[in-house]
Amino acid sequence: MDERARVQEAMRPRVRDFEITGLGKIYLRALTAGQRDRFAASVWEGEGAARKQNLIDANARLVSMVWADEDGKSLGLSEQDVAEMDGGLVGQLADAVVEMNGLGKKAVDDVKAKLLARPDRRLLFRIAREVGKSVEEVEQGMSSAEVAEWLAIFMLEADEQRPPQPHG
After folding, report:
1. DSSP string, 64-133
2. pTM
3. Rounded to 5°, angle at Cα 54 from 19 and 83
4. Number of Cβ within a 10 Å radius of residue 168
């Protein structure tokens, strides 16, 4: 097996079986990088300050992407197919997908710890939220001088929010 084939085989999305109350054993395939990106993009709509989350059918969308047979082949269920299933069942499946793909509380806690240690990275997230773009878009499209100006704006705003100190 050549190196490329070896790496592709090792990186193929893994398949896990789960016991789901009321359904029995089912198989879920890990999200591919492309699926993860498409899902993340699908929960946001709009641009700039009008950007907001769209969580309508988010669990159904997530589950439809990964429900598979034991070999990892998609069952071909559409988002609409899953959206019409029992909500409690779909919730259990979505929880399994979140856990399997490292999207749960522990993953969030790990990222939070990293962000606490990296104020520069937190600044990029604040700017991205303010301008309605991703951090990657901010990094690629903004000079370091403009990032410094944003930092100055945030610091000035924080100073303006503080009550005046009495002079004694």
Report:
1. HHHEE-TTS-B----HHHHHTS-HHHHHHHHHHHHHHTT-SHHHHHHHHHHHHH-HHHHHHHHHHHHHT-
2. 0.58
3. 40
4. 3
What token pair was written down for 168? Answer: 């004694």
Q: Are 55 and 19 in contact (CB under 8 A)?
A: no
Domain endpoint, select from 88, 103, 118: 103
Question: Which position has the higher pLDDT, 95 or 40?
Answer: 95
Provide the residue range defining the domain that includes 18: 3-103
Nearest to 72 by CA among 16, 146, 122, 5: 16
Structural domain contains residue 167: no
**Closest C-alpha to 62, from 87, 99, 35:** 35
Contact in structure between 101 and 94 (CB atoms under 8 Å): no
Question: For 97-122, what is each residue's pLDDT tens digit?
Answer: 888 887 777 766 777 788 888 899 88
